[in-house]
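R.M. (postdoc): so does anyone remember the format we settled on? I'll just put the structure tokens first.
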């Protein structure tokens, strides 16, 4: 069964109000960050490819690689499927990511069918593809499919934001943050958006 989908600002506001009422620390963060960004994008091959590109690189580097891939026409699955590894590397990908994205183009994922699958079924299907770990699958589920109750506890920004907001001595591990996030269900994806925004506020204050 597919749960709540975040379509627009009203959904975000409902989730934010729920978090605000549940935990005063979220109320504090929401007061600081203001309206949460929707961060929705179209689902499908390009969204998942972009998530792979974003793995372990800066935002600026990921954006530069995406621009080169699009300029080369490699935001279309059929084009990637016919490309060589050298073609993909010439567009800015590392050897490893070229292999991952080539594998994605040949994985036979029915992206339309994923829209009707439960969250965990979506994640299970996606992690079958080489180069797609749980973080990538959860980011796709949150921002391409709009799933309201998905969280990505292995994300460093979410871990660091949680450390600051909840005054933890150390950055929480993926396991610890996944357990913490259970309290934010059924709006874990709204909590993630809040923490992402709060992370930027904290880092700007620190001059980073």
């Amino acid at each position: 069964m597919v749960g709540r989908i975040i379509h627009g600002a009203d959904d975000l506001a409902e989730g934010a109000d729920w978090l605000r009422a549940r935990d005063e620390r979220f109320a504090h963060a929401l007061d600081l960050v203001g309206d949460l960004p929707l961060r929705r994008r179209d689902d499908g091959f390009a969204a998942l490819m972009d998530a792979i590109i974003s793995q372990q690189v800066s935002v600026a580097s990921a954006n530069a690689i995406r621009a080169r891939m699009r300029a080369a026409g490699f935001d279309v699955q059929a084009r990637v499927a016919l490309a060589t590894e050298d073609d993909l590397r010439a567009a800015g990908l590392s050897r490893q990511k070229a292999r991952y994205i080539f594998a994605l183009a040949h994985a036979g994922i029915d992206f339309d069918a994923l829209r009707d699958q439960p969250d965990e079924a979506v994640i299970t299907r996606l992690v079958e593809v080489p180069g797609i770990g749980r973080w990538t699958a959860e980011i796709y589920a949150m921002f391409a499919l709009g799933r309201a109750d998905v969280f990505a506890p292995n994300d460093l920004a979410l871990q660091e934001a949680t450390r600051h907001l909840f005054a933890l001595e150390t950055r929480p591990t993926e396991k610890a943050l996944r357990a913490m996030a259970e309290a934010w269900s059924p709006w874990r994806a709204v909590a993630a958006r809040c923490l992402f925004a709060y992370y930027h506020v904290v880092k700007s204050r620190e001059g980073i």
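R.M.: ...and that's the designed sequence above, right after the tokens. Also worth knowing: The mean pLDDT is 95. The radius of gyration is 18 Å.
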